[in-house]
Amino acid sequence: MSDNKVILTDQASGKSLELPVIKGTEGDPTLDIKQLNGGLGYFTYDPGYASTSSCSSAITFIDGGKGILRYRGYPIEQLAENSSFLEVAYLLMFGELPTRAEYEDFENDITNHTMVHEKLNTFINGFHYDAHPMAVLCGVMGSLAAFYHDSLDMNDPAQRLLAAKRMIAKMPTIAAASYRHHMGWPTAYPKNSLDYCSRFLDMMFSVPAENYEVSPVAAKALNLLFILHADHEQNASTSTVRLVGSTGANPYACVASGIAALWGPAHGGANEAVLTMLDEIGSVDRVPEFIARAKDKDDPFRLMGFGHRVYKNHDPRASIIRKACHEVLAELGVDDPLLGLAMELEKIALEDDYFVARKLYPNVDFYSGIIYKALGFPTSMFTVLFAIARTTGWVAQWLEQADNPGRIGRPRQVYTGETERNYVALDDRA
Ligand code: CMC
């Protein structure tokens, strides 16, 4: 809480209300409006929540003006350079970097939960072969509540932790199974001798007929991308997880709702949409045509992978991914013309008044798909990869909320429908 107060005066009634100002450790001050309706009889109207803080949280900090992103105080650049995805998961969940012993225990725990109930594989096989893997992921994550009854009680901290670890451990197994089902390949079980990212690559791409060696370059690239996607404070999917969490729903249902929210092209679905867009543009000479379409208000087309609600300077994740994209493609010996096309699109957009005036920069999704493609992932798996990484953020945010549960999330509305009118019998209607 800060010493500052904001006084609101309603000119119609002459009544005033003193609103306290909340000051976090960093970031803009926030007006505490809990008393507003009781005091002055008003609600606030903020569609899209551009000016609304829905909770307080100690996990992730973003300064969109300066292009800063930190997990638990650690700059994303340092974590990307030095950390591993599981270490970041630990950091997000528990607030501190683990000691070696804590890390080994955590890694062990996660590794011990990588298998899924065999019946779950039957469930996955019940989906139509051409089901989008995000549809499978959404359904299967929700269904975990039907398999793991010993971790549904969110009032029990031990059950909460068990559910959190299970979800982080099983997401790659389920994700790979959804892909293999589509390909018609037999189930691949997790090899617990491998690290998190290598194990996932093995489950994705190994086939019984051939030896498969996980490429260290691919595992390192995936580790980096997973770290960068792990959390992003109160984005749409995380807010969804928290809203569902506020009802007391079980953890698997909460995270399934996050997966559903992530799927949209304005959110995590953008990485798939970027590749589709680049394919559609096809060659550098068509870039101006698509830039013109993105600027045309009568055309619903948007430059996918561009723009962000919070970042108005640059997205620090995009800067790291752009650099990694060049390195990974070079190390893998991949020459993808889409990289040149993406760079040209970025260059032209960043010089264009429309994008400059609106502070629209490449976001995390702009270059990530080009790396995923170079690693052999089909486009339909891109948002699934985002979901695997973001599961750590979702569970960390859900655990934080469960430690200090507030009231159920229940926004109000500005009603614009009919005022009261009388029912008219069917035969009397015109
Ligand atoms: N292409 C063209 N115009 C755009 C774009 C774009 N990608 N993004 C925003 N604008 C324009 C928009 O039309 C509006 O113009 P005007 O003021 O003239 O009406 C202005 O910029 C502000 O846009 P907005 O829709 O009010 O901004 P928002 O904060 O509500 O939306 C966004 C943010 C990310 C949904 C949006 O920029 C977008 O749709 N981008 C493309 C999809 C995308 O890349 N999403 C991934 C986001 S980052 C990862 C994640 O969160 O999952």
Fold blueprint:
Elements: E1 5-9, E2 16-22, E3 30-31, H1 36-40, E4 60-63, E5 68-71, E6 74-75, H2 76-82, H3 85-94, H4 100-112, H5 118-125, H6 133-147, H7 157-183, H8 196-205, H9 216-229, H10 236-245, H11 251-262, H12 270-281, H13 287-295, H14 316-332, H15 337-351, H16 353-357, H17 365-374, H18 382-403
Antiparallel strand pairs: 1-2, 2-3, 4-5, 5-6
Helix pairs in contact: 2-9, 3-18, 4-7, 6-7, 6-11, 7-8, 7-18, 9-14, 9-18, 10-11, 10-18, 11-18, 12-17, 14-17
The structure holds carboxymethyl coenzyme *A (CMC).
Question: Can you offer a commentary on this structure?
Answer:
The structure is a single chain. By secondary structure, the protein is mainly alpha-helical. Helix content is 51%, strand content 6%. It has 18 helices and six strands. The strands form two sheets. A three-stranded antiparallel β-sheet has the order 1-2-3. Strands 4-5-6 form a three-stranded antiparallel β-sheet. A hairpin with a 2-residue loop joins strand 5 and strand 6. Helix 9 (216-229) packs across helix 18 and helix 10 (236-245) crosses helix 18 (382-403). The longest helix is centred in the middle third of the chain and has 27 residues, at 157-183. The protein is globular. The relative contact order is 0.12. The structure holds carboxymethyl coenzyme *A (CMC).
Number of E-state strands: 6
| Largest sheet: spatial strand order | 1-2-3
What's the overall geometry?
globular
Rounded mean pLDDT is: 96
SS element count, helices: 18
